[in-house]
Amino acid sequence: MENLQAGTVQTLKVDREVPFGYFLTNGREDVLLHNNEVGEGFDPEQPQTVFLYQDHQGRLSATMTIPTIQIGTYDWVDVVEVKGRFGVFVNIGIKKDVLVSKDDLPEILELWPEAGDRLYCTLKTDKKGRLFGELASEGVIREIAEVATEADFNKDVTGTAYRLLKVGTFIVTEENYLGFIHESQRKREPRLGEKVEGRIIDVKEDGSVNISLLGRSHEAMGDDAKAIFAYLESRGGAMPYWDKSQPEDIKARFNMSKAAFKRALGKLMKEGMVYQEDGWTYKKGV
Question: Per the database record, which ranges form the Conserved virulence factor B first S1 domain (predicted)?
Fold first, then answer.
């Protein structure tokens, strides 16, 4: 018989009633289900399914509120408090918040999540059996990923930063697309867990996307010109398309007719934003 462990869901029998609640047992260990943690439909004659956690005194306790985040299961949780010495506390759906240790957070305090930010987490215990939140690994994030298609190109998206690197930020969009924001496509580095809004500037073969947080260049230009210019930016300022490209190639990449492509490209050239050379189009200044 396994020991009772915080962060897990257990089905236990009621052993005895006390003035402040009920002690539940697995036949070897007891745990308190406080009166304020008793849910509707409680019947002391029946086994009770409960979630185990430590109360504010560090004692193992039970609640009939079953959170979606448990040891071995993941979900998005809201950051509710930041404690510089310890880390950040997240709300997992029960009355006691759980700490995500500073050891699992960015070294730079300014990049820590703030209250209201969201983290994709599971739960873990340390050697003393204390319950902590644990950020999802890249592999776990990829398990929830959806595949973007070319139809998503230039689409506005909202996402949450889940991994921070010097070269850029990884996010999960509301559609569960995995996105990367290169440092050149943002004015500042987002916090871990921060919600950001941007646009898709490239859809990669694996279905992940590149995203820009920068304002759309030259808002006065038409939508077709915006899409072309955004794609050009995503490729570092050079693309193998020009006004003599094949209609089917233009349709496949930009989802527009050759006539529309030529009009939009002509507008960009007239405004001095791009130029063509040897079958390629280049952003001016590149």
Answer: 7-64
70 DSSP 8-state letter:
B
The identity of residue 116, as a single letter, is: G
The CATH number assigned to the domain holding 39 equals 2.40.50.140
Q: Per the domain annotation, does 166 fall within a domain?
A: yes
Instruction: Give yes or no: residues 87 and 121 share one domain.
Output: yes
Structure tokens that stand for 64 in this block: 């009939």
> Which domain covers residue 45, as residue numbers?
9-63
Cα 164 from Cα 147, distance rounded (Å):
22
Tens digit of each residue's pLDDT (9 = 90 or more) over 70-99: 999 999 999 999 998 999 999 999 999 999
In this prediction the pTM is 0.74
**In degrees rounded to 5, what are phi and psi of residue 122?**
-125, -170
- pLDDT tens figures, 2-30: 689 999 999 999 999 999 999 999 989 99
Other Cβ atoms within 10 Å of 4 Cβ, number: 20
Tokens of 175: 């559609």
Q: Cα 29 to chain center, whole Å?
A: 38
Residue 276, domain member (yes or no) = yes
- Residue among 101, 91, 96 at smallest CA distance from 55: 96
Last residue of a domain, one of 188, 212, 236: 212
Tokens of 154: 């230039």
